[in-house]
Design a protein that fits this description.
The chain is an alpha+beta fold and 113 residues long. The longest helix is centred in the N-terminal third of the chain and has 13 residues.
Amino acid sequence: MITILHNPRCAKSREGLSLLKNSGKDFEVIKYLDEPISEDALKNIISLLKIKPIELVRKNEAIWKSDLKGVMLSDAQIIKAMLRHPKLIERPIVINDRKAAIGRPPQNILNII
């Protein structure tokens, strides 16, 4: 099953959702700001993306700039920050079995569906 972590207020996330709709494949939408993901799920996503936690952080978010920018954080602390402030999680993220992609640009999604 394909899953998209989606924020309806984000244009790139809406574009990613549109790509999935146009693919004709079944998928599940998780509005991660309304339905928080677990720490294990976030760690799994990071693993599937093959990135460091910091690479999943939206560094232009106000909470990052005001509270976390310039602070030396461990991977575990970065994950905790994303769980506490889900707006920090880059979006959209599409997961398809053992593959995942950040939809920036949205065309990245096509590589895994």
